[in-house]
Write a structure and sequence with these properties.
This protein is α+β, with helices and mostly antiparallel strands. The protein has helices at residues 43-48, 84-95, 107-122, 133-136, 151-154, 156-159, 245-263; strands at 24-28, 53-57, 138-145, 164-173, 178-186, 190-202, 207-217, 221-222, 231-234, 237-240, 268-271, 278-286, 290-294, 300-305. 21% of the residues lie in helices and 30% in strands. The strands form three sheets. An eight-stranded antiparallel barrel has the order 3-4-5-6-7-12-13-14. A two-stranded antiparallel ribbon has the order 1-2. The chain is globular, with a radius of gyration of 32 Å. It is found in: Plastid. InterPro entries: PAP (IPR039633), PAP/fibrillin_dom (IPR006843).
């Protein structure tokens, strides 16, 4: 394979031959000159002949080329640089680390987050989000908020160490103009969710009015099988549970029966207070994977689309 350092080994006419996508292609625009030997006539002299030709490096999609040969030194592979928006989004998501969705963020961290959000909003690729409803569709995971109304919920993990707040999400169906907010909890024996259903109306290119209709406490999904260890460590001593195997098996059978009974019950629905039924939301940034919204009182919500690589730790 011809590379740039070895180009002086070929004639100007020879350079025109190149059907291999991993070699240089030369296009003559003047009548050909027979066999100008570059070993005698340098490239500089060849240029002086005012020969008009173009050199184009074509890189094959197959890094080994069509003949299963390694790509030569004359072909450079250039990684695409991330855009400014991509860099800002990555910096923003990184700044959420250790903040518990905003609950434990320090004043310095909040200031940094607000600065990054402001920079992203200035580069919003979707200036009229309500006119691009297909982008709003789908499930969005809450990554950060400054809304103090959610802080008591976010702090439950510390108050109840056995209960974990797994996820806060918002699912939008623009076809039916519905919004569903959901909170997923998990415990050692069960998982459950609390959701609120709402309708929304478009009020401006960026603003929607939301009216909540009902709340639902999902039926706890208990594990139908509990695995007990053969031994446990207590106060520095290793306790063998083998003698209690019969009793533990009985507990397991009881738990399985309870799981089946509870899981068969319908979810519990409740009405939303009229004083908290209406709200509005202003979408200030929107693309395929990040949404930034501002709500009542200037609260900020940063949500990431389910499936986005930005959700990967």
């Amino acid at each position: 394979m011809a590379s740039i350092p070895s180009i002086n080994q070929f004639s100007c006419n020879t350079l025109q031959k190149s059907s291999d996508t991993s070699k240089f292609t030369v296009k003559n625009s003047v009548s050909p000159v027979n066999r100008v030997d570059l070993s005698v006539l340098s490239i500089k002299k060849c240029v002086r002949l005012r020969r008009n030709f173009t050199v184009r490096a074509v890189v094959s999609d197959d890094e080994w080329g069509p003949d299963n040969e390694p790509v030569g030194p004359g072909v450079a592979v250039v990684d695409e640089e991330p855009t400014e928006i991509e860099v800002l989004k990555k910096q923003l998501v990184d700044s959420f680390y250790g903040t518990c969705r905003g609950l434990s963020a320090t004043s310095e961290t909040r200031a940094e987050i607000v600065e990054l959000i402001t920079k992203l909003e200035a580069k919003n690729p979707t200036p009229a989000p309500t006119e691009a409803l297909t982008l709003l569709n789908g499930k969005w995971i809450l990554a950060y908020t400054s809304f103090v109304g959610l802080f008591p919920l976010l702090s439950r993990g510390g108050a109840l160490p056995l209960v974990k707040l797994e996820e806060i999400s918002q699912t939008i169906d623009s076809g039916n103009f519905t919004v569903q907010n959901s909170v997923l909890f998990s415990g050692p024996l069960a998982t459950t969710s609390i959701t609120t259903n709402a309708k929304f109306e478009v009020r401006s290119p960026k603003r929607v009015q939301i009216k909540f209709q009902e709340g639902i406490i999902g039926t706890p999904q208990l594990t139908d099988s509990i695995e007990f260890p053969e031994n446990v460590e207590f106060m520095g001593r290793n306790i063998d549970l083998t003698p209690f195997k019969g009793l533990l098996t009985s507990v397991q059978d009881t738990a399985s029966s309870v799981a089946k009974t509870i899981s068969s019950q319908p979810p519990f629905k409740f009405s939303v207070s009229s004083t908290k039924a209406d709200s509005w939301l202003l979408t200030t940034y929107l693309d395929e994977e990040v949404r930034i919204s501002r709500g009542d009182g200037g609260s900020i919500f940063v949500l990431i689309k389910e499936g986005s690589p930005l959700l990967t730790p």
